[in-house]
Amino acid sequence: MGGGDAAGQRAFCPVCRRQWTVGVELHRSALVGQQVDNPVSAEEKVRAVKDLTRDDCVAEQVTASLLARPVTAQSMSAAERVRVVKELTRDDEVATSVTSELLQRPRVARQAMRNDDVRFTVNRAQFDNSEQAREQIRERMPSVLKIEHAMEYLDLVGSAHQYVATLGWLVPRLRGQKFSDDERETIRRSIARVRGAVDWLEPALETGMVTLDEQLAQLLKGE
Predict the structure, then answer these.
(1) Measured over all CA atoms, what is the biggest interatomic distance in the chain, rounded to whole angstroms?
(2) At what angle do helices 106-113 and 92-103 cross, to 10 degrees?
(3) DSSP for 31-62?
(4) In angstroms, rounded to a whole number, what is the distance separating the alpha carbons of residues 33 and 217?
(5) What is the spatial distance between Cα 171 and Cα 166, in angstroms, rounded to a whole number?
């Protein structure tokens, strides 16, 4: 009897019971998604970090610190890293700085320029930058407009003359030539492109409107 009473007293020891109760409460808190006082598992630690970084200022500093750790960045999947970079470069100023630095890496630049959309965008940007530079020059030096006008006029006249002269030399040589159906079709498509370009040029001379409609743009591209 005495031994049984001693065992019962040990089972209901206030200290042990308190420890057991605390452990149960921690477990319950983890299960219901509440913050625990002493996080142990990875899930509990993640939950604790999220709770501590609700403040934007704290979150910014923690994020910057974590991303600066090479091991942490390398452990992320490529898709996740891409997502993070996209989020961080939503601001145009940041994106410009990052892009400029990345394109200075030869391997990255080569890989990027293999993408048709990227190459088109870069070429377009170069054209826009050149056009902006020309506009600035025109504003400072009005005489440049007259020079450009003369050059463009000579280019147009010279192009038409060169085309006519080339046909004048080639067409007589077609006598006795036999073309396959594919060859004739290719030539017909080229003629259609020439006609489309002429139809674009004539109203541009009269009205100054040089906008291409979608159908003509595709025709000139050979699509």
Answers:
(1) 128
(2) 110
(3) HTTPPPSS--SHHHHHHHHHHHT-SHHHHHHH
(4) 59
(5) 9
Give CA–CA dist 20/100, Å, rounded: 60
Rounded Cα distance between 125 and 131, Å, is 10
d(CA 96, CA 91): 9
Tell me if 89 sits within 8 A of 95, measured CB to CB. yes
pLDDT per residue over 133-187, tens digit each? 877 877 777 787 788 888 888 998 999 999 999 999 999 998 888 899 999 999 9
**Amino acid symbol at 47:** R
94-123 pLDDT per residue, tens: 788 878 887 788 888 888 888 888 888 888
Which tokens hold the place of 179? 């073309």
Cα–Cα distance for residue pair 95/89, rounded to 1 Å: 5
Identify the residue whose tokens are 């006008």.
Answer: 149
pTM over 0.70: no
- Cα angle 208-213-217, degrees, rounded to a multiple of 5: 105
| pLDDT score, position 35 | 52
Token pair of 180 as six digits: 């396959």
